[in-house]
UniProtKB/TrEMBL annotation, chains A, B:
GO molecular function ontology, one term from the record: metal ion binding
Keyword hit for Acyltransferase: no
Organism: Bugula neritina (Brown bryozoan)
Pfam families named among the record's database cross-references: FAA_hydrolase
Annotated ranges, domain Fumarylacetoacetase-like C-terminal: 105-235
PANTHER family (UniProt xref): FUMARYLACETOACETATE HYDROLASE DOMAIN-CONTAINING PROTEIN 2A, FUMARYLACETOACETATE HYDROLASE DOMAIN-CONTAINING PROTEIN 2A-RELATED
Source taxon at top rank: Eukaryota
Name under which the protein is recorded: FAHD2A
Length: 236, 236
């Protein structure tokens, strides 16, 4: 089992005025490379990070593997690392990557913003409309190559829920046990490939072109967010 | 990039009388475990395999990684191994797994059998209808647990094309360069979850429940199949 990204369900009843950065607190996990070496990082502040693999050499060097192996250990080590005197690295001296790569699956929820439903003239869904993007769509912030197959690229900011625990038939009351944290995605869509007559009405192609899931650089741990239903997220 | 499973496109014009075994020739790649150790195997005949990792210790121990690292080396080593005096292992002494696990993506083509289109009363598509299953759906042959969420489980035999080479905007004439080989899947579908009103018409949930992609134990290399458009495949 690998970690899963879930585009937020619960913003159905909120408006989509939304920051490509979730407000920053202490526990931000990220991935970076420096001198060709890929590592997990912990953010100290806006400009500094610590190399978690240097602090805790037996952790995997990618977030997905570390989450699957033992997400509690990842948290514990990140917290210890932040309180240590480990050397701070300037973000200017590294390449930041998306905070998770190769997730086991990416589950998206369609028509999850009230104002988007109004915009496209669709009734509010009574249950979640589930679609997916291929895991290979994940990329970092920055410019992407727009695929030649679309002339109607659309962007939409989404809160991403990072699920680290294998789950099946979960009760609503237990759902948060499975959540590791959050990040923010740009849910890119080839709008000209979504219609009843395109690809048999399936969203997949429109949602899953190369680089169609840029992620913010940090995963924020769940305990850092007081009310996930009341966040402002936005694209810059 | 990880290997990709593609459910056959080209059977559109053939009928779906179809063997959960493709006729056996020399180059069959598989995955098995013995005494808790996971290995890549090469099939010698119906009852014997060779442990490819014992023969070639620097190969990864799973097919997906070996394909991504160097699919030509996997082929070369498998061929050398078959001609060697390496010890034969009875399939009765091992646990066979699906021949590939954690593929980068699983791409399915809907309405790809002429007789299925007639059965469900749909016109033949003029272009492929693309859907996906989650990579975690892959399982081996044998019994599966039917999810409680469906009362309409449907089975359908499909030829699977294993793609080992990263590809983008490929010309039809070059397509076969990207194909490593073939296997056979049972394309399980929760038929009661496919309709215009279920999940917004998206096939994803109906196609992607746990274990909804059982695979035959072997991948047959592409050069073993003379005419892929003229195969009989069937479920047992
Ligand atoms: Mg969206
Ligand atoms: Mg099918």
């Amino acid at each position: 089992m690998r970690a899963v990204l879930l585009f937020k369900l619960t913003s159905l009843l909120s408006d989509s005025s939304c920051a490509y950065s979730v407000c920053r607190r202490k526990m931000h996990i990220l991935q970076f490379s420096q001198a060709g070496r890929h590592s997990i990082g912990v953010r100290v502040d806006d400009t500094n990070i610590i190399n978690l693999n240097d602090f805790s050499p037996d952790l995997p060097t990618d977030v997905c593997s570390a989450l699957c192996l033992d997400h509690k250990k990842l948290l514990t080590e990140a917290a210890r690392c932040l309180q240590s005197t480990s050397s701070r690295i300037s973000v200017d001296d590294v390449t930041l990557h998306p905070p998770i790569t190769n997730p086991g699956k990416i589950i998206g929820i369609g028509l999850n913003y009230k104002d988007h439903c109004e915009e496209v003239g669709k009734p509010l869904p009574t249950e979640p409309l589930v679609f997916s993007k291929f895991s290979s769509c994940v990329t970092g912030s920055g410019e992407i190559q727009i695929p030649s197959a679309t002339k109607g690229l659309d962007y939409e900011c989404e809160l991403v829920v990072v699920i680290s625990k294998e789950a099946r038939n979960v009760k609503e009351a237990d759902a948060m046990e499975h959540v590791f944290g959050y990040t923010v995605a740009n849910d890119l869509t080839a709008r000209d490939m979504v219609s009843a007559t395109k690809n048999g009405g399936q969203f997949l192609l429109a949602k899953s072109m190369d680089n169609f899931c840029p992620l913010f650089s940090d995963i924020v741990t769940k305990d850092e967010i007081e009310d996930v239903h009341n966040l402002n997220i936005s694209l810059k």
